[in-house]
Specification:
By secondary structure, this protein is α+β, with helices and mostly antiparallel strands. It has five helices and eight strands; from the N terminus they run E-E-H-H-H-E-E-E-H-E-H-E-E.
């Protein structure tokens, strides 16, 4: 099981659907991920997709992050293939846990995990250009500007080899 200082991580499973639906329907959480909260139907489709991605690899996909101390659900982190040598990493954290260093902790844990995978050279973080908090987390953790993407997304890269 993957752990960090305050969190444990595991791939999401069918038991996590209710938490996922609540998070995906939260305007506050989803503004910088999809642009707006998802409908219940969209949230269910998103969860099905995430669950399907997890079936492709035991190491990659969408992971549930839980507090070691309280066993509370903190959020999700993802690590999914972009190219044969690059993984996209990202996170979604419930608002009560914002501003407490969990994003940095999650990114560092994913970097450790990715560095153990033999064919991965780079991690890519994608943040909406107006999401300064996430951009700051990426920059603070050694990611550098790569390119401006579509829909105001900005790509940041970190070489792990």
């Amino acid at each position: 099981m993957l752990t960090s200082a305050r969190l444990t991580y595991r791939q999401i499973n069918a038991d996590d659907e209710a938490e996922s639906l609540v998070m995906a329907q939260s305007e506050e959480v989803m503004t910088y991920i999809t642009g707006a909260a998802l409908s219940l139907k969209e949230a269910k489709e998103r969860f099905k997709h995430q669950f399907a991605v997890n079936r492709e690899s035991q190491y990659l996909g969408f992971l549930r992050a839980e507090s070691i101390e309280t066993r509370e659900f903190v959020g999700y982190v993802k690590m999914t293939p972009l190219t044969s040598k690059e993984l996209e990493i990202g996170y979604a954290i419930l608002p009560p846990f914002w501003g407490k260093g969990f994003a940095t902790e999650m990114l560092k844990a994913m970097e450790v995990c990715a560095s153990s995978l033999p064919d991965v050279d780079n991690l890519i973080g994608i943040a909406h250009s107006s999401n300064q908090a996430s951009i700051n987390v990426l920059l603070k953790n050694g990611f550098g500007f790569q390119k401006q993407g579509e829909k105001e997304d900005t790509h940041y890269i970190k070489n792990i080899r």
